[in-house]
Specification:
With about 260 residues, the protein is α+β, with helices and mostly antiparallel strands. The protein is about 30% helix and about 25% strand. The protein contains 5 helices and 15 strands. Helix 1 (about 5-30) packs antiparallel against helix 2 (about 35-50). The radius of gyration is 17 Å and the shape is globular.
């Protein structure tokens, strides 16, 4: 069952979304050759807790970290580790926070140092796919419209979209109904209504869409070892159109800056 949110609940989700966005914005600035993905995870947890929130991912179904840290061919759910980022890597960071009983969920893929043009294009097309999907988050549209927006743009540029993992509804729990695939057909699937809140997250691969899970039981990698990019926003469906709750606003105050002052 898809759980609609009241305007008051959307306001609470906007607060959690802004915090998630601010944390992710700061984590982006930390990405450089030589830093370990575990250091970035530790910084994320510190910022989230200092802001009076909880790192949603930590302990979720046994996941042991505060962010998902996925490098190169890792698609999603990567474990932070002692691995030190290298120039030429691409690094996906997925961050969730729980504030006031509601979850904000957002992700980005960051180039590390000098990165090959084809990888920069992969990231750009993935970001564009998310922007196109957000434009379809309108009352009266269908879930298939969102998936098609991602699929057609990615495939038109020679990439594939992951089918094993999807976006989702979000609210008091990180994963609520409905599932939101990154593929589909326009006009199909449940109708979108005002008050719905979605986490839309294109996962776009340079090669095959097929994936496998590593022995840690979490880290998803491309089957052919080709790179993957992942981006995500939490979006509320309003009478005025999509409200991107995790897109940082100019009047938002960074919890990291506040903690350092």
């Amino acid at each position: 069952m898809i759980i609609g949110k009241s305007k008051r609940e959307v306001d609470k989700m906007r607060a959690s979304g802004q915090l998630a966005g601010l944390v992710l914005t700061h984590l982006r600035t930390m990405v450089e050759p030589g830093i370990s993905t575990l250091e970035i995870d530790q910084a994320a947890e510190r910022m989230i807790r200092d802001a009076g929130a909880l790192p949603t991912f930590k302990g979720y179904n046994g996941f042991p970290f505060s962010i998902c840290a996925s490098v190169n061919e890792q698609v999603v759910h990567g474990f932070p580790s002692g691995y030190k980022l290298k120039a030429g890597d691409i690094f996906s960071i997925d961050c969730g926070v729980t504030l006031g009983g509601f979850v904000g969920d957002t992700a980005t893929t960051v180039p590390v140092g000098e990165v090959a043009e084809d990888l920069l294009k992969l990231i750009r097309i993935t970001e564009e796919s998310l922007d196109l999907a957000i434009k379809q988050c309108l009352a009266g549209n269908h879930l298939g419209d969102i998936g098609w927006a991602v699929q057609q743009h990615a495939e038109a540029n020679g990439y594939s979209v992951v089918r094993d993992y999807v976006g989702h509804g979000i609210g008091r729990r990180m994963h609520e109904d409905p599932q939101i695939p990154n593929y589909g057909k326009p006009g199909l699937g449940p109708k979108i209504k005002t008050g719905y809140v979605f986490a839309v997250e294109p996962m776009v691969n340079k090669g095959t869409h097929l994936t496998r899970v590593l022995s840690d039981g979490w880290t998803v990698v491309t089957l052919d070892g080709q790179p993957s990019a992942h981006v995500e926003h939490t979006i509320a469906i309003t009478e005025d159109g999509p409200d991107v709750l995790t897109r940082v606003r100019s009047d938002s105050i960074s919890p990291y800056s506040a903690a350092c002052n």
